[in-house]
Amino acid sequence: MSNDRIVQERAALRRVAALVAGAAPPEQMFAAVAAEVGRAVGSDLTGICRFDPDDTASAVGSWSAAGHTPPFPVGTWIRLGGRNVVTRVYETGRPARIDTPADASGEPADHARQRRFGPVVGVPVHVDGRLWGTVMVISMSSEPLPPETEDRLAGFTDLLANAIANTQARTELRAFAEEQAALRRVATLVARAALPEEVFAAVAAEAGQLLGADFTVLGRYEPAGAATYIAAWTRTGREFPVGIRVEAGGTNIHTMVFESGSAARIDDYTVVSSGAAARVGRDWGFRAAVGMPISVEGHLWGCVSVASMAANPLPPDTESRLAGFTELVATALAQAEAQATLTASRARIVTAADCARRRIERDLHDGTQQRLVSLALQLRTAQLAVPPGAGELSQQLDEVADGLIEAVDELREIARGIHPAVLVEGGLHAALKALARRSAVPVRLDITARDRYPGPIETAAYYAVSEALTNSAKHSGATLVDVRVDIRDGRLHIDISDDGDGGAAPRPGGGLIGLTDRVEALGGRLGLHSPHGSGTTLRLSLPLDGRGEPPRTATPGLPDHGAVPVGG
Predict the structure, then answer these.
(1) Which 3-state string (H, E, C) describes 334-362?
(2) Beta strand 215-221 with 56-64: parallel, antiparallel or unpaired?
């Protein structure tokens, strides 16, 4: 190594040592170490990762030379495993390198290939005798990194370990890790489209526990500024009064956030607070509080606040740490609104289609069908006027009349398929009995629910049973179909099971896919369970109170209703 390079490296080490001595914040220190390492070693990219207890690694610092994209944003986490540098360091606690990226495997290797990384060298960071993480340097070319790279990194990792071992740094790092984990848990709920109420409760609990507060409250604003508490968490063990409404006005967190649209804090509730929200806070022993606005698509929606019963103010970074949670709440609300809009649009389409079906059925019954019946009667009357001895003419008229009657019967079947009149006139119970009578496979009905339900609900249920019976007759080889209908938890539940060959699966453009769209448009669920050789079960659940469920993502195993979502 040249004298110039030695001088540059020592200067970089001195700069890092000065940061360590000055107790720089962890994020600043990690960024500085990554940059100094990259420049000193001459790499294209540098990354610093912390190893987490759940066999994952989280990025805490990164650097890139001019013209290159940083290897990963701070906060990125990746699951360890396979043959790659970060996993080798984690498993052995020793330096590791991979000179040929094609030989690597595992999630970190996939991440590297997507970004066209070349050779990688990583060295461990040990803190108090325990493996803490790794510092990696990455080349964007195909040439291996120099053989002395591991040794040159060692000086930086020693300084980094000393900084992390500092008590203040350890505390901040633990808080950083806990914050990332809490945000990740809430983000997972948002990503799987959990109900907003579930996200609200999770945010209240995670924020309160993370920040060491005694209370967390989420409030939703009305246009004039009054707030309704929609979720809460408390360390005291008492149940905070979710659902109460407090008027705007006075000096309190909810009013201050509403009026300013920005963060607010009160360091001594006993001295400066006033108004309805302040009275609630004092009744619960609030001494200090901080609130952050929740904005959805640029409009103030609500407020999340944390409060403490201690006499000291909440830490100065409370606002910034709450901000991540408010962004996740806003995302969940935007998703819920978009889903509600989509569901309403789908429901309108289904309703319009059903109305068109009923109109066509009515027109066929009252118009074309009646006209054909009238013609058949007129033909029979004309047949009576045929003179004796015109037997051939009489026979021809007879055939035409019979053909008209057959045409009426066929038209009646077509009209019934378009929209069954018995469903409109007699309800779901009567319509399912009619389906059972016409089924080519014997049907055993068990209907405990015999009330009338909203038209779209009855129609969806009817077509589900009709589709299942048709599939059983055509494809399953079944000898018996069981249909059970009952009401549980404000929902209409229908199970259709046969003893056929099983192996059924939804196909693009098939009846099950269309049926799933109809059911989900009403907030319902449709599940299929059809193992080979064990029959087929179709399970349908529809809300009777107008409130549906969010769409579910199919995951390994069976959901609680025992069938894999058809559209998952």
Answers:
(1) HHHHHHHHHHHHHHHHHHHHHHHHHHHHH
(2) unpaired
CA-CA distance, 326 to 304, in Å (whole number)? 7
- What proportion of the chain, given as a percentage, has pLDDT over 70? 79
State the pairing for strand pair 120-127/130-138: antiparallel
Specify the pTM.
Answer: 0.41
CB 548 within 8 A of CB 542: no
So what's the pLDDT on residue 557? 32
Question: What are the structure tokens assigned to 76, written together?
Answer: 């990125």
> Which of 115, 38, 114 is CA-nearest to residue 47?
38
Query: Which two structure tokens, joined as six digits, stand for 109?
Result: 């290797």
Nearest alpha-carbon partner for 125 in 42, 26, 211, 194: 26
C-alpha to C-alpha distance for 79 and 110, rounded to whole angstroms: 11
Phi, psi of 342, deg, nearest 5:
-65, -45
In angstroms, what CA-CA distances link 11 with 37, 123, 536? Answer: 11, 21, 73
pLDDT in tens, 414-467: 555 555 667 777 888 888 888 888 888 999 999 887 788 888 888 888 888 888
Compute the CA torsion angle 142, 146, 150, 152 (nearest 10 deg).
-130
Structure confidence at residue 335 (pLDDT): 66
